[in-house]
Amino acid sequence: MKDLRRYLALKYIQYLVLSSSYTICTFLGLLGSLYTIIILQSAKVSSKSTAVLISSLAKADILVSVSIVSEMVVWTFDVSISSTAFTSALQQNLLTANTHISCLLLSCVAFEAYLITFFPTESRHLRTVKNARLTSRIIWILVTAECALFQTDDLLKASSTSAPTHSPCVLLFHFSSTAAALLRSLSYFLGILLRIVNVYVYYKIFFSMSNR
Fold first, then answer.
1. Which long-range contacts (CB under 8 A, 24 or more apart) does 141-146 make?
2. Using CB atoms within 10 A of its CB, is residue 211 exposed (0-12), middle (13-18) or buried (19+)?
3. How far apart are CA 178 and CA 166, in angstroms?
4. What is the pLDDT of residue 174?
């Protein structure tokens, strides 16, 4: 459990404290996620809702690994300009998806810690493995849809110059561009809100434990 707490602390620093990702922190996060996945396979770790959320958090770093591998492929092999643009957009969208999934799952862990601290008995029916798996699945589905929208918007922007003025692609471009812009703005403000909420939650938990 101490290792899992250290891993959560690392992830909170990586996604909810630092304003942008750094190479060293990303590398440590990947190592921590790999180590965490191995730990959670052990029979000594009980299958609880928190463990399910942490497992999903660790698996989110697979998106970072895919982004790094795709970047290495672009550098290693001779690819066309269009393929480079597609890969570059995909890399960025995968990193964005990883950040959003991680922030949401970390917030779920914080919320569960809040319930355990202040409403341990009343919230027992909510803190189940089934609900944790359902929550993780919903987060993955929503962020995957977001990533698909961003990727579609980037592809349409890259091909908009060659499309006819009155073609259906133009209407699709305007729709996806507007939807992507609104979603990016919503994600930005949601990220700020999650940072504030997480700080408040752990502030309350810290002083509650200190008073005890």
1. 143/97, 143/100, 143/101, 143/104, 144/97, 146/97, 146/100, 146/183, 146/187
2. exposed
3. 18
4. 75
Task: Please state, in angstroms and rounded to a whole number, the distance separating the CA atoms of residues 181 and 141.
Answer: 20
Record the tokens describing residue 187, joined without a space: 């994600």
Helix (H) or strand (E) holding 21: none
Residue whose entry in the numeric block shows the structure tokens 């299958």: 47
pLDDT (0 to 100) of residue 131: 95
CA distance 57 to 26: 14
- Taking the C-alpha atoms of residue 206 and residue 29, their distance in angstroms, rounded to an integer, is 25
DSSP 19: S
CB 131 within 8 A of CB 49: yes
Number of Cβ atoms within 10 Å of the Cβ of 133: 15
Write out the two tokens for 12: 């909170």
Q: Which residue has the tokens 């990947």?
A: 30
Q: Which CATH class is domain 1-210?
A: mainly alpha
Domain ranges of the chain: 1-210
Closest CA to 93 of 201, 202, 26, 187: 187
Cβ pair 177, 156 in contact under 8 A = yes
Predicted pLDDT of residue 34: 94
10-residue mean pLDDT profile of the chain (212 residues): values are: 89 84 85 93 81 94 90 69 69 92 95 92 92 96 93 79 55 77 90 91 84 64
